[in-house]
Amino acid sequence: MLNPDLHLNSKVFDKDVEQKATREGFGEALIELGEQNSNVVVLTADLSESTRTDGFEKKFPQRFFEVGVAEQNMAAIAAGLGISGKIPFISSYACFSPGKNWETIRTTIIYNKANVKIAGHHSGIMTGPDGATHQATEDIAITRVWPGIEVFVPCDSNEAHWATLEAARISGPVYLRFTRDKSPIITTDKTPFDKNVQMYWVSKNPKVVIFACGYLLYYALLAAKNLEQKGVNVLVANISTIKPADEKTIIELAKKTGKVVTVEDHQTSGGLGGMIAEVLSSNLPTPMEFIGLRNTFAESGKPSELIKKYKMDDKAIEEAVLRHLKI
């Protein structure tokens, strides 16, 4: 069942569940931060509307910088602002930032521990019809490898809002991952934001723990509900913070169930699954199944079609759990 202690959305399984894009939560949080702290500034690379930074631009035009299609320049300017007492948020599609400007971020922001927040939008195959060139499915891997950075992957617009606020409180670089299309609202205003692992689905005598991040957490919850009806009890953990990893809880949950499934809209290499595997291989080697994009680019299409085609939906998660139990 849904964890009652977290005050999750009781209508999450309804057909008419409220949906909102995670980028919306980011845009709303930026305005809130702008009102709270005059040191917050925002930069974008010709994508203010798409990345929802246009609201900040209208309210705080003197603290908004449009650098044009120049992602490397955006990162370098932000690095200077970040070491000069400002709290800059840079915003673009994840394929361009941190994709195209990866080396500039590494050298100017990460190496200098500049206080810059990197917002990567249109991540995952959720980007749909824009195709593989705009579907960032490697961004978790290429950011979490940087020393000293924190990486957030919020599950819905509420958590995106909270993660953005939290990013501003952190001294140092942060990567925030957002999606374009609407996705179900899983949390409520009463749900606490926690950088540690949170149990969103709980059950007695669970056989498998499902670690999920981003909007695919919703599909993991659907799978858990379906499995419970078949007499198979599982746990579903929300991993909103990929780095730093909550190693203690990950190990405890793997020890409790003995089997692990990871779920992410990302390549199965280097992302959430890679992080979990690293933690467990060093502390508690555990059988794992990985749900995500498997060593391939995705096609262009509707998000729902792509999620099904590449076996990342609730049915695929359910099948992975049942297959895993036979090991």
What does this structure look like?
The chain has 327 residues and is of the alpha/beta class. The chain folds into 2 domains: 4-16 and 190-325, Rossmann fold (3-Layer(aba) Sandwich), CATH 3.40.50.920; 19-184, Thiamin diphosphate (ThDP)-binding fold, Pyr/PP domains (Rossmann fold), CATH 3.40.50.970. Helix content is 37%, strand content 19%. It is built from 12 helices and 14 strands. It has helices spanning 22-36, 54-59, 71-82, 95-100, 102-110, 139-144, 157-169, 217-229, 247-257, 272-283, 303-309, 314-325; strands at 19-20, 40-44, 64-66, 87-93, 117-121, 150-152, 174-177, 183-184, 198-201, 208-212, 234-238, 241-243, 260-267, 288-293. The strands form 3 sheets. It has a 7-stranded mixed β-sheet with strand order 3-2-4-5-7-6-12, sandwiched between helices. It has a 5-stranded mixed β-sheet with strand order 9-11-10-13-14, with helices on both faces. A two-stranded antiparallel sheet has the order 1-8. Helix 10 links the parallel strand 13 (260-267) and strand 14 (288-293). The longest helix is centred in the N-terminal third of the chain and has 15 residues, at 22-36.
